[in-house]
Amino acid sequence: MSDRRILHLAVLKSRATWLAGMGCAVALLPACDPVIDIEGAYFPAWLLCVIVGIVLAVLARYVFVWLKVEHHMGPLPLVYSCLALLLALVTWMVFFHT
Fold first, then answer.
1. Among 3, 5, 41, 78, which is 20 to 30 Å from 48 by CA?
2. Domains in the chain: boundaries
């Protein structure tokens, strides 16, 4: 076999292993998630944390504009998406740290 063919087979095997691992994670990890009851409907806790993170990032944007520091920031989509992620993770740690 040529070296190129061997490399191609190794890449395919690596991708298949990764996809199998992700499939197992997707199938098994949702069972570990805490669930919140809101008005009789059950929501996963991570969904609530993501919503809180996004809302807090939007509020932070208004604060940054009011303080006139937004124009000093880097690429705004990257900054605000990272800020939303950070705030969602902090929300998760504050309320679901067990």
1. 78
2. 1-32, 33-98
First to last CA, the chain: 53
CB neighbour class for 88 (10 Å; exposed up to 12, middle 13-18, buried from 19): buried
Which parts of the chain register pLDDT below 50?
Answer: none
**What does the CA dihedral 86, 87, 91, 97 come to, rounded to 10 degrees?**
20
Alpha-helical segments (H) within 3-97: 3-28, 45-66, 76-95
For residues 85 and 60, the answer to whether their CB atoms sit within 8 Å is: no
Q: Output the six-digit token pair for 82.
A: 């990272």
Nearest CA to 59 out of 16, 67, 38 is that of 67
pTM for the complete prediction?
0.62
Q: Count of alpha carbons within 13 Å of 41, Cβ hemisphere only? A: 4
